[in-house]
Amino acid sequence: MSLAAKAAAIELAGVKNSVKNKALAAVAETLKAQSREIAAANEKDLAAAKKGNLAGPLLKRLKFDEAKIADVCAGIESLIRLEDPVGKILAATELDAGLELYKVSCPIGVIGVVFESRPDALVQISTLCLKSGNAVLLKGGSEAENTNTILAECIRAASEKAGLPSGWLQLLHTRQDVAEMLRLDECIDLIVPRGSNQFVRYIMENTNIPVLGHADGVCHVYVDGEAEVDMAVRIAVDSKCQYVAVCNAAETLLVDEKIAAKFLPAMKEAFDEEGVELRGCERTRAIVDVNVATELDWRAEYLDKILAVRVVGGVSEAIGHINEYGSGHTDAIVTANRQTAERFMEMVDSAGVFWNASTRFSDGYRYGLGAEVGISTNKIHARGPVGLEGLVIYKWKLFGSGQVVADYSGQEGRKFRHKKLR
Amino acid sequence: MSLAAKAAAIELAGVKNSVKNKALAAVAETLKAQSREIAAANEKDLAAAKKGNLAGPLLKRLKFDEAKIADVCAGIESLIRLEDPVGKILAATELDAGLELYKVSCPIGVIGVVFESRPDALVQISTLCLKSGNAVLLKGGSEAENTNTILAECIRAASEKAGLPSGWLQLLHTRQDVAEMLRLDECIDLIVPRGSNQFVRYIMENTNIPVLGHADGVCHVYVDGEAEVDMAVRIAVDSKCQYVAVCNAAETLLVDEKIAAKFLPAMKEAFDEEGVELRGCERTRAIVDVNVATELDWRAEYLDKILAVRVVGGVSEAIGHINEYGSGHTDAIVTANRQTAERFMEMVDSAGVFWNASTRFSDGYRYGLGAEVGISTNKIHARGPVGLEGLVIYKWKLFGSGQVVADYSGQEGRKFRHKKLR
């Protein structure tokens, strides 16, 4: 099965953008045409899940009705409008007359997608793989088996009919655990996990295949001594409260001691209004009446209406705290001082470093990337919100006319020109 | 020790190019000034190695005399002339008025360098790390302990005196195996191994840290039916013989059946002159008198004057053979047909795909990349010969003026502009 995916990936690397777009259009059409059948399959999964006492939020994520189908189809249509990420010339050099080197973007190969209950992840990621010319192996949660099966079959059938190589998309059905897939490091080039942070952490710790994603989102807002109090309160509240259950929501607020007496009471008032529980360090509690924060709170990703608050001695201590306790996702500074902001942005080792803006902006849609593969806290390949460019790599194409290296060797050898062509 | 490297990496991210270049110049100066002491330390290692009966080629690699010191210093001087890989603006978007997003290159963090006997690898990689703003932990072979110790101390002392943060470069001395370093996945972001292919394969199989490099170099030359025989012979000979012990030397020659009768005798004559042992498939042996190739030969990286030869049914079979048996390093086609060449270059899944040129061109210097970190057969991050850009990643810097996401939510919310600034 994975060998078939590898073979399909090779074919797919040569498929033109027009064919890929035709296939994407056919997929959207098929999903719409089959929406009743898809919803019915999903009803079966939902019924079984209710019987099995699946928790409420999981049930909600499992649900895939006609409205959700319309959503994923809108996503596919915007994907069609994006330019082809494959075949871009990233660099070109004339090494010598008639010897030209091109660095050209190309698909990565076979992407393994592992997801929990949300069936929309199946559609999103597999159409992103299609657009970027990658074969995809899918492994979903067993609770969504009926939904995943019909979705994968719709996408496979429509796209193959439109000219994609057979085997480019496959759903793994085996009873074995997700662990099965994670061992296929011979034929899977990249794993994209979609699910809870515990789930993603499990994936990352149990495979040798590179993983594109993030486990934790312990984001910080640091309110500098030179911050405007109103702006700082607004940014803190938005970062924490605008949507508490997501990875780019703030979990810890760091406050410069120089502004603590002024900022903390205003901050408390605003968070009290939002019903947020505050947990503070001793210095915070000397100024406002909040619960006690312990060492564990600095590492906590609450994903809930709870915020840890710590008073620090200035921007250096804030940077130190963030680099020690943070998850390298997104961290913001509020200050009127550009130099302080630039230092923070240079030295905080995170995918997103923001000045006077909410951490909640850390998102592919808001960044204008179009489709989002996910948010990566990796230090190599792709970092932060990742668009289609995270699913491509490049190869070096050398166009010669019979040149050999011996001609360029020794004192008398030809010299390279190394002339940049673009 | 690794925590100190992490802390130093944070500082280093903010160090200006002028300071890094000053430090590099100081390193070169110190190495020259200390060249007698370095050569003396190396003599000690060489004497111990000879006593320990280290094999001849290993002894040669261990040798680090004044000529080698001059070489690495020349490398450092050309590194100084390269532009700073850090702080490049890779993309910029105005999300809205006063809300600008920049994708900016930055150091990766802490690089672990693991190398066998060659002490020049220590100097090369650590100065590449310096230029790209990365902290570096070094672990060399015990047989080079005296040489490595004085080299690391020269680099450390000179660069710290020039303003680099203390702890940015550290040599691991512990008796524990290289395995020790490979477990530090909490604080090392990338491993760059330098050594034999067995050594690199061992590293890759025994760490969760991303590894930048290649284990095997099973490179191919495919002679298409529409090739010019003279050119094909010249390219095949250069690819195999110009330097047999390196990863970009060809190990297997694939020959289109349409040209076999004409090409194989000419090829055999040329390789006989070079003293290369040929091992052929049955169809090859029906035309020329060569030894038998077995399945093992298709996977062999001889690094020696041996070449496997196989007759195939055309470009598709050649592509299939290369994708099955190759190592994704560098593969060449010789043909007069551009369409055939383009198909080959699209569907061969290798870092380098060459048309009418020797595989030996696959090299950072020949590509004009300047300094080379290594050659990567990875499918993510960096592929092929990797210059300084393989040691950097990027972060997203968002410059706001108090914006919050709530303002952009709902029907009445502000709309993003997403205007490309560059």
Characterize the structure shown:
The structure is a homodimer of 422-residue chains. With 422 residues, chain A is of the alpha/beta class. Chain A folds into two domains: 231 residues, Aldehyde Dehydrogenase, Chain A, domain 1 (3-Layer(aba) Sandwich), CATH 3.40.605; 149 residues, Aldehyde Dehydrogenase, Chain A, domain 2 (3-Layer(aba) Sandwich). Chain A is 41% helix and 22% strand. In chain A, strands 10-9-11-8-7-12-13 form a seven-stranded parallel sheet, sandwiched between helices. In chain A, α2 packs across α7, α3 packs antiparallel against α7 and α10 crosses α11. Chain A is globular. At the A-B interface, α1, β2, α10, α15 and β13 of A face α1, β2, α10, α15 and β13 of B.
Give the biggest sheet of chain A. Answer: 7 strands, parallel
CATH architecture label of the largest domain in chain A: 3-Layer(aba) Sandwich
What share of the residues of chain A does DSSP label as strand, in percent? 15-25%
Mean pLDDT level of chain A: 94
Query: Which strand order do you get reading across the main beta sheet of chain A?
Result: 10-9-11-8-7-12-13
Radius of gyration of chain A, in Å, reads 25 Å
Distance between the termini of chain A: 41 Å
